[in-house]
Specification:
Blueprint: H1 3-16, E1 22-25, E2 28-31, H2 32-40, E3 49-51, E4 54-56
Parallel strand pairs: 1-4
Antiparallel strand pairs: 1-2, 3-4
Length: about 60
Amino acid sequence: MDREQLIQRLRARVRRGGPAEQVWWNGELVHVSEALIRAADLSDHETIRARGDDVVIPSMLRDDE
């Protein structure tokens, strides 16, 4: 998924409202408006994985090891 597809998907969640107003962003529960801001800040070449209400940006995941 590219950045524009993610933004379109998040905007659709805003239109639906209700419990769809929050998503998991790399394991952190955030409001869709915050997720839209974060998505807009991503580079065009960022790897994005999204399914259901989960968004994962592999390059931003912390490795605590």
